[in-house]
Amino acid sequence: MFRMIALDMDGTLLDHQQRISKENARAIEKAREKGIKVVLSTGRALPGIDDYLEQLNLKEEDEYSVTCSGAYVVNNINTKTVEEKYLSYEELRGILQIFDPYQIHYNFYTQDKIYTKSNNFTTHIDAFANKLPMEIVDFNHLNKDIKIIKITLINEDLSVKDEITSIYPDIPLENPDIFSRTNDKFNKELFKDITRLSQDLLEKYTLLKTTPYHIEILNKTSHKGNGVKRLAELYGIKKEEIICIGDSGNDRQMIEYAGLGVAMGNAVEDIKQIADYVTLSNQEHGVAHVIEKFIL
């Protein structure tokens, strides 16, 4: 019998319009009525899921979410922290030294802001989705004691504008000309196989490929799998009693950890291959389908 379900947000619980369908919301409500713990497990920061927690009636002291891809696990009213793992300023500098020759963009999250070195589409989208202010700064002049939750490597260029914007079809962009820049060193395949990136990076950090053009870098022990595990321990729930549902690279560890790991119908192929079950797409209420099939 399953007692807990952990849900990715973008591409999983949310449809292309960034909404929770009535079907998904109704199924989650029925699951909670049966005593099932519902956990949102997302790459977003807590402010970016606050409205959804409200919609699902999860704004309670004893309800928790896995945020920032596992680096920050907190209760849904932000008063109790279960897990918080940071990267240091020196670690940021080391990562920049590796990737600066490729002329890619970067951003990183703190508790209350998203910082970037240069204007870029992805960071505007991140700031909007997470309801966090964005600041363009010289990374050489940051406070050396800054606590970094996660770093995002951003490989974007005008040549892949349509492909990247299709990932976020209904998120508004204030400056439509932000994609008017080209990069003569742009390599579309740069992130194709993250195992071929710096061996030093792979040994020191958790690397999560969230799209073909974005890689998240976190503390080595931070990922959604560990975040879900920490909450299972808190609730006294066994891994065999957990369902985890996701669609992209930062969902891999929690899908592998779960008693039932589920890939969305719209998931990337390597996530489908490791899943125990493939549900319908996020446009077809795939979360509701899983709840109705395995819980209700």
From TrEMBL:
SUPFAM superfamilies: HAD-like (SSF56784)
InterPro entries according to UniProt: Cof (IPR000150), HAD-like_sf (IPR036412), HAD-SF_hydro_IIB (IPR006379), HAD_sf (IPR023214)
Pfam family, one: Hydrolase_3
Domain of life: Bacteria
GO molecular function list: magnesium ion binding; phosphatase activity
Gene3D superfamilies per the UniProt record, alphabetical: 3.30.1240.10, HAD superfamily/HAD-like
One term under GO cellular component: cytosol
PANTHER family, per the entry: HAD SUPERFAMILY HYDROLASE-LIKE, TYPE 3, PHOSPHOSERINE PHOSPHATASE
Name of the protein this chain belongs to: Haloacid dehalogenase-like hydrolase
Species per Swiss-Prot/TrEMBL record: Geosporobacter subterraneus DSM 17957
